[in-house]
Structure formats: C-alpha cells, structure tokens
C-alpha cells in the first residue's frame, strides 16, 4: 500500500511585494504535519465546484485549512461585523469539496475556518460577534499538528 495522500484546501492571497500576484497558500505547519505523519500533502487550489469530484478522487483524506471568515449568507445571516475578510468563491468551492468528500466517505479534518465551514455545511450556524467569548491566548504551541 502506498502513502496516504492528504488534500489540503488552499487559500488565495495577493502579495503586493510580489507585483500584486495572487498565490495559492497553505500554512506550512499543515503540510509539515502531514509529512511528519508519513503522508503526502497535496494542496488543492481554489477552483470551481465542478472540479471537486476529481480532487476528492485523487486524495485519501481532506484537511480544510483556516483563513477568511465564512460568509454569513451561507447560514442565513447578514454581515454583522465590520470586515471585508470574506471570499465567497472559496466558501462555495470548499462546500462542494465537503459534499463530495462526505459522498465518497473520505475523512475530513478541519482547522479553524475549516471547522466553521464544516459546521455550516452540516446545517449549523456561527456566532459572528465573538468579543464576549474571548479567551486569553496561549503562549507558544497549544497543540501539535
């Protein structure tokens, strides 16, 4: 049996210092963690929902990475916070990834935004205003990936 292929959902970010180009990114800790566990990380760039079946066919497991806020329209709410840190195209693509991974019975591991999106995909909603839910931060690594 070959190594396990772990798909990691990629984010798109523009880097002004790189001539304004947009790059597909993932946190290096996610890819490092997959390699350290003996797997092969595969970054899945944001695309159109019709590509998700092909991507999920290529992988054994899926990691939904962190990033922007999940668009509140996806769980029936209006934008309540003053932020432009949304990427609806990513939300829609990753919702299609989730649907296809569930259909194929592939395990999903979700980190931060990824867990929020998985919650929304399964019919949940989110609390947009978290100021009153704040917890003191942990200095250093709080857990190993």
From TrEMBL:
EC number(s) recorded for this UniProt protein: 2.4.2.-
Keyword terms: Glutamine amidotransferase, Glycosyltransferase, Transferase
Protein species of origin: Streptococcus suis
InterPro entries documented for this protein: Class_I_gatase-like (IPR029062), Peptidase_C26 (IPR011697), PuuD-like (IPR044668)
Gene Ontology annotations for the cellular component aspect, listed alphabetically: cytosol
Coiled-coil region: none
Pfam families: Peptidase_C26
GO terms of biological process kind: polyamine catabolic process
UniProt name for this protein: Glutamine amidotransferase, class I
Domain of life: Bacteria
GO function term, MF aspect, one: gamma-glutamyl-gamma-aminobutyrate hydrolase activity
Tagged with keyword Glycosyltransferase: yes
Gene3D superfamilies documented for this protein: 3.40.50.880
